[in-house]
Amino acid sequence: MPETNKYRPLIFSIVFIASELSSPKILRAPMMGNRTRATWLKNTRDQRRISSAHEYKNGWRTFVQRYFYDMTFHTSAAVIWARRCADLPLENPMNSEISSPQQCAFFFAVVIAVSLAGAPVAVFATAAAADAASLQRVTQEMADAVAPGNTAVWDRYTDPGLTYVSEDNEVKNKTQLLADLKPLPKGFSGNIKIEEFKLVPFDGFAVSTYIMNESENAEGHALHARYRATDTWRKTAAGWKLVASQVLAIPKDPPQGVLSAAELDQYTGVYELSAQTHVGIRRDGDHLIAERDGRPAQMLQAEIRDVFFTPGRPRIRRVFLHDTAGKITGFADRREGEDLVWQRKGDLASG
């Protein structure tokens, strides 16, 4: 991310110049205790010079850490250096080494460099937050333009190479999408609210995902639907442009139907997928329970006669099958239009 790199030359320059200013071969680092316990640290010029591409390759954080480590002074020494360089009185001058102006320069340069080290991250985070707020506003503006069929808004924010995939699995380009964007018919109204908006920024583009909470009034009848959308945005000189969008309908449980206890009892029994796999279905009050070895029991709620669903799993239906005489012969596990058929083998007592 380019934003994280622009402070690196400044940080390198501050620390490097300061290290050259404080160039004595021997730096005395005061330790806790008296003068005799002071440690002499060899710190030659060649150790502190940027003399190879290897150091730069290791990154600016490694660079700063290395120079900061080379000083190896204790906390007490840092406090003494700071107070001395600021012309503040020392608590115990007899036990402290007085820093030279060059050492003061190096000390404060390191402090500045370490402080600036966090600046790129903060700048990038601020920019990312601003982009997220901006694109959320734009996304809501585009959603508001759907009901009235305002193509000008979509034309403004979409890239000429747009690929749009609808919840009905229709793949459209920009021209096709704008042509299909028409006002709702007379007697219909609605709105879409953008919720749970999240943006992941990259170098020159960003990916957003969110919920479209749709409310519609169809000639006095209220309708409600939710969709999950994922968008890809490209940053251009003219601003952010939508280059790809995919919409998925979020399935939800259907309304529960009502069947009598006698009607529900007709579905109880043992059903077989193969010689090794069986499921038992029994009634429990106003619903059915499907029990299969090695799996948790599942509730089956009636949607309409012969059609059942498990709450929380709206993509699957269990459709009970009959012969010509009306007798139940099995059921189909139906998902995405595909049936997995189970055969009825008998009632629970004989199963």
UniProtKB/TrEMBL annotation:
List keywords of the entry alphabetically: Membrane, Transmembrane, Transmembrane helix
Q: Which residues form the DUF4440 domain?
A: 136-242
Query: Which InterPro entries does the annotation name?
Result: DUF4440, NTF2-like_dom_sf
What residue intervals traverse the membrane?
Answer: 104-130
Protein name as it appears in the record: DUF4440 domain-containing protein
Q: Give the classification, highest ranks.
A: Bacteria, Pseudomonadati, Pseudomonadota, Gammaproteobacteria, Lysobacterales
